[in-house]
Amino acid sequence: MAVPRRKHSHARQAKHRASWKATRIQLVDCSHCGARIRPHTVCLACGHYRGKRVLLGAR
User: Fold this and answer.
1) d(CA 46, CA 42)
2) CA-to-CA distance for 44 and 57, rounded, in angstroms?
3) How far apart are CA 50 and CA 38, in angstroms?
């Protein structure tokens, strides 16, 4: 297993961490009920996924 030879400086460490940014969650409208959901997931409001009902317990 590779082991670093020296400690990284604080400036180099800060430059590396500068790219750790929070990203906004992408949301789309459900094609059946219009609720805002994440892409490629089942709508928890109506239970549909890609035009088909997959959750029976949903409204």
Assistant:
1) 9
2) 9
3) 13
Residue 15 carries which side chain, given as an amino acid letter? Answer: K
Q: Which positions ≥6 away from 48 have C-beta within 8 Å? A: 30, 31, 32, 33, 42, 54
Contacts of 33 (CB under 8 A, 6+ apart): 43, 45, 46, 48
Strand spans (E) along 1-59: 28-29, 36-37, 48-49, 52-53
pTM: 0.59
Would you place residue 19 in the very low, low, confident or very high pLDDT band (cuts 50, 70, 90)? confident
pLDDT at 59 over 80: no
- For residue 39, give every residue at least 6 positions away whose Cβ sits within 8 Å of its Cβ, in sequence order, or none: 26, 28
pLDDT value for 54: 92
